[in-house]
Each structure stands twice: as C-alpha cells, then as structure tokens.
Amino acid sequence: MSHQKKIALIDDHRLVRAGIKGLIDSLDGYHVACEGESGGDAVELARSGQPDAIVMDVSMPGLCGLKAVKKIREQNKQLPVLMLSMYDSPEFVINALRNGADGYILKDAAEHELKLALDYACQKKPFLSPGVAKHLIDLAVRSLSEVSPSEQLTGRQKEVLAGIAEGLSTRDIAEKLGVSIKTVESHRSQMMHRLGLSNSTELVRFAVSTHLAT
Q: What pLDDT digit, counting tens, does each position of 54-67 carry?
C-alpha cells in the first residue's frame, strides 16, 4: 500500500465534516488523521498534529478559516492548506490566497476535483475550482478594461508622447531625452500597438485628449 498523506479536516458542521471525511478517506493516497471545528483547532493541529495537509472551511465562528490560514503561515510556510467553501465570491478567494492558502475548492465539487485539489496543494501548486477560476478571470478582465489608456504607458513612453504632441521631430525628442533615435522610434511603435493607433496624428490627438500635451 502506498504511503497515505495525513489530512487535518476542519469544519464546524459535524455532518458536513463526516461527509467530507468519507470522501477524502475514499481517495487513493489520503486519509483524515485528525479533525477540528474551528480556526483555532486548525492552528493548533498545524503546530502539534503534524498533518501532511490541512483541508479547512472558510467560514467558521470565532477564528475563521481566512484568519486561521494567515496564523498558520506565520509558523509554517510549507504546510499545504486547501480551503473549502460554499462561497465562490472573488473577495473570499483573493483573501484566502493572499493569506497563504494553496487552493480554494467549492463544497459541491466532484470527487475527482477534490483529489486533484489535494494533489496540487500537496505539491504546493495553486488550485482553484473551475467555477471560482471563472469568477476571478471575469474580475481580472473587468479590472483591465477599467484601466485608462494612458496608464498602460511607461513613464518614458509618456515623455516620447509629450514630445510628439509638442511637434518635435524624432531627432529632437531623442536629443531632449538623451536617447537614440532608434529608441524613440521603438517607443513610438510600442505605443501605437498598445493603444491601437495607426499613425502619429492619432498619437497627437491621444496626447491632447489625455492632457499630456501642454
């Protein structure tokens, strides 16, 4: 029989915990070695129980899972911690990952997903339930679309753009910034590509509209 990894299972609902324990025990390579019902239990088991990984509910009375994983990380950077939750809110997920969780899986996940999540967590690779990952991707796309075009440019690119808006030649801009003509041309090309513009006239209009031109 292959070595089985010892799992510490933390959930404040006894029946839910029993169900999850049965699932974990049925997976090849894992068994629940100890249990708890609070974030405080998780922190204590991480310190003294010597589990190979912790599977912990996010929302619990007292010390919640999000705060517990942060405390665990203060004493143990390497112990795999997989968060279980019924909540797929990006805020919960981001906070869990920020506090040091290795993965985030929903409680309605299929058996094979739980196995995959444990495998990933024990290899210290991040794992997110597909539904959770979709919400995070949607949030990232929305955030990127809210970034103003000028914020997509580097400081040096803005300096080149300001020179273009002033009507300076490529040579003049290069001399003013103390760079080569080739560098200015490269910045010009990168800006037009990044901003979706096709010529210098559109670059000038963009500079004026964003108040980069004085």
A: 999 998 888 889 89
Upper half-sphere CA count for residue 26 (Cβ side, 13 Å): 10
3-class DSSP state for residue 36?
strand
Token pair 């004085």 in the structure block, residue = 214
CATH superfamily of 5-130: Response regulator (3.40.50.2300)
Domain ranges within the chain, ordered by starting residue:
5-130, 149-209
DSSP-H helix ranges across 2-83: 14-26, 39-48, 65-75
pTM confidence score: 0.65
pLDDT attached to residue 213: 46
**What is the CATH code of the structural domain delimited by 149-209?**
1.10.10.10
Q: What are phi and psi of 5, to 5 degrees?
A: -80, 135
